[in-house]
Each structure stands twice: as C-alpha cells, then as structure tokens.
Write a sequence for this structure.
C-alpha cells in the first residue's frame, strides 16, 4: 500500500521544530545547515542547536562528503522519534480525524481488493475506533485488536487480545497504535508477513527494515 507523508504546518514549539527537522532530513539528506534553517523558517544558530541535539540523542548521524560538507541521515531511533512526534502532533490537531478517516477507508479498500477479509487491528486507541466506524460500510471483517498493554477485553465493539494468535486466522494487520507506532510495526515484522501489515501515512511509520538500515 503506497505511503506518503507530509506536514504543511510550520513549526512553532520545541516538538514541532524537532519533528520538522527530522522530516527535512528524511526527505533530503544533502542539505547544509543554512538550507535546513531556511526550510524550518528559523535562525541558523537555532537550527544548529537542534541538529546537535538530534545527533547527541542518536536521531541523526552526519557523514562527511567532498568539499568539506556533511550529509545527514536518520538513524532507526530517528525514524521512531519522527513517527512518535508525528502521531503526537496529529492526535492533538483538529485535522487528525479527517486525515485518519480518509486513510482508514483507503486501507480497507486496499485490503478488500486483495480479498483480505479478516483484518486485525494492532493498538487500542482513537485510530482503532475510527476503523471500527469505517468498517461498517466496507466488505471486510474486523476480527479484533491485538494490544500487549491492553487493560480491557473490549474496545469499540471489538475484542482485545494480548496475543496475536488469540485473534485466530488473520489475512492482514493494520497498525492503529498511536503511542509508539514505529516500534509496534518493527515488532510485528518479526511475527507476520510485512506485505500484509498495513500502515497509514498519518502515523509517519518508515517501512524500511532495520536490517536494511544496517548500523546507522
């Protein structure tokens, strides 16, 4: 399922600047610090401060290239933090429901077109509730929610299981965890075929495996 992500809102606070910086580096690692500052709409010194903070926290790595320049790229921890901040930001914005609903419907149609009719959700929360509503008009069957940290047995009219096998036969899984979506996706890849794990752009999940990223 194709996935793209974008953020048209200019950063305002600390978390927004950090998220935008991670997005900028993800989209183009051949940037100077000055061009990063221009992209973010902040002073060069401030951009340098945030970049150094990201390097120290292990979100970004720098590699020297010819002409005494540096190439910046996200580490696995950087992808995870970008995903977490994206979910946190969108969850608190009025656009979340509208964006999420459209993407939920698209993913359900994608599954239906492949005859994946028994769908499991992964993660209790607002996104799972939106899916429960969207599925009412789609030719798929939501069979339950898999959530290791769940404290309830039912949510949004669906049964909640702490073990994936408790859901029974599953055609596809959809990540609905908005707290740590990247970590959840990475964990699922060891339990279920990646091509049958659907992710939404609204969560900012990178589908690049950690093995492909190597020791970055």
């Amino acid at each position: 399922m194709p996935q793209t992500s974008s953020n048209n809102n200019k950063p305002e606070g600390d978390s927004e600047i950090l998220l935008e910086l991670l997005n900028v580096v993800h989209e183009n690692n051949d940037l100077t610090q000055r061009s990063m500052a221009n992209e973010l709409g902040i002073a060069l010194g401030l951009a340098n401060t945030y970049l150094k903070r990201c390097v120290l926290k292990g979100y970004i790595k720098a590699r020297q290239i010819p002409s005494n320049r540096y190439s910046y790229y996200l580490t696995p921890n950087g992808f995870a933090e970008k995903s977490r901040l994206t979910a946190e930001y969108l969850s608190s914005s009025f656009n979340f429901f509208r964006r999420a609903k459209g993407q939920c419907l698209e993913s359900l149609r994608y599954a239906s077109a492949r005859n994946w009719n028994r769908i499991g959700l992964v993660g209790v929360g607002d996104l799972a509730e939106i899916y429960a509503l969207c599925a009412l008009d789609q030719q798929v069957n939501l069979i339950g929610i898999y959530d290791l940290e769940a404290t309830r047995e039912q949510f949004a009219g669906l049964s909640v299981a702490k073990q994936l096998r408790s859901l029974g036969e599953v055609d596809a899984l959809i990540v609905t965890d908005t707290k740590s979506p990247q970590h959840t996706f990475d964990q699922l890849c060891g339990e279920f075929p990646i091509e049958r794990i659907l992710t939404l752009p609204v969560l900012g999940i990178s589908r690049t495996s950690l093995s492909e990223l190597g020791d970055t």
Residues 4-12, 210-216 have pLDDT under 50 and may be disordered. Residues 129 and 156 are 6 Å apart (CA to CA). The domain at 14-74 is CATH 1.10.10.10 (Arc Repressor Mutant, subunit A). The longest helix spans residues 96-113.
